[in-house]
Amino acid sequence: MTKTLTDLMDARREEKFDLNARFLNEQMVGVLKTLGFDRRYVGGDGAYLIDESGSRYLDLLGGFGVFAVGRNHPRVIAALREVLDARLAGMVQMDVSLLAGLLAERLLATLPDSLDKVFFCNSGTEAAEGAIKFARYATRRAGLVYCERGYHGLSLGSLSLNGDELFREGFGPLLPGTHRIPYDDLAALERVLEEQEIAAFFVEPVLGHGVHVPSDDYLPEAARLCRKHGALLVVDEIQTGLGRTGRMWAFEHWGVEPDMVLSAKALSGGFVPVGAIMLRKPVFDALFSNMVRAPVHGSTFSKNDLAMAAGLATLDVIEEEGLVANAEKVGEGMLADLRGLVERYSFMHEVRGLGMMQAIEFAPPDGLRHRAAWKLLDAAQKGLFSQLVTVPLFKQHRILSQTASHDLAVVKFLPPLCLDDADRKLVVEAVDAVVADTENVGGAIWDLGKHLAGAALRTRGGR
Predict the structure, then answer these.
(1) Consecutive H or E run containing 428
(2) CB 365 within 8 Å of CB 358
(3) Residue 403: which H helix or E strand, with range?
(4) Superfamily for 43-69+326-458?
(5) Which secondary structure element, helix H or strand E, spans residue 44, and what is its range?
(6) What is the CATH number of domain 75-320?
(7) What is the rounded average pLDDT of the residues 320-340?
């Protein structure tokens, strides 16, 4: 019989994929094996993952943006150990949390003075759910506006604001009174605000699916239109916040003052789930208007001491290690280097992003042979070309990345903010080599394309 958790994991490490296929998501195991991403990782260190053979992989996926300060940061680990060793009286419920008060104070100090209240929860989707409730109660309106390709979570309320049909299909009816508009389209926003009773407009300052940076006037004018029509502006910074775009909060690039800001992911330090809504006091007080209403919205684990300590330690690391400035310097340098490749390769269409939130978009070129090869992949699954980049990046260069969405030919990078110039050089050289290989239609990389296309067709056919 094993004596420790480490003993248990060591004894059964070889069963990881079998256990997940039997008892959890078999389809995800299938995805990993099809792409060749089925590694047995045994550790993480900063921006790197380490597998059982000792190989190191540069992690540009970052747990979908969770690991902003890197994996296993000693400062965050120390804070969590300190909480455990202190044997605190946490989650009394008929009490309030000192650590929650301290974290709320620290978060609000990074935001405009107009935001002066915090509601803690467990995740990004809970933050979106809570914002829906705050907005509807404060305005006494039901209407909610969101963007095409927008993403705010997968629970039923946040799913109602999801701009991608893949995630919505089969889960209806969703919340009534929701209105989808194109991203970066002020005319569409103004039209729906004029025609409907809207409680709030939910928007990502940089659209996560595809990494689209808006026009310079989009967010400032959206804020003005919301104020004019009595709607609240809810800025979803769950992925973009806490330094990712080279500012503490992405909306700072445009000088906007939202009514609510949503945070999660990176606030965890990579350890304990945590989410937060930062909002204006009148909006908060409308819902919690008297002592009888004190418990009308909450979450059992939301202000647990481990989550609050992780948040405080994460903010310390971001500040003390200058990660916001590093995200701007290294991130913008990497974007500039990658943009230098666009003119060299026929499939490479555009590089875009801010700081450490980046995308490379691919598109069919003019040449007949290249265009025909693209169409064969696209016929099997739209956007499949992007996997001709992510798979070799991983298998040949030990760089983990992701596609920006299931049907987009866009490769997305969300690395830890601690990437340095050596990492930047490694990424650019690897992308250069992989994209160069795609130019050789009929070469080995296109054999991979045939394999992936076959898997996609079998999946689509239900076989």
Answers:
(1) helix 421-438
(2) no
(3) strand 402-403
(4) Aspartate Aminotransferase, domain 1 (3.90.1150.10)
(5) strand 41-45
(6) 3.40.640.10
(7) 98
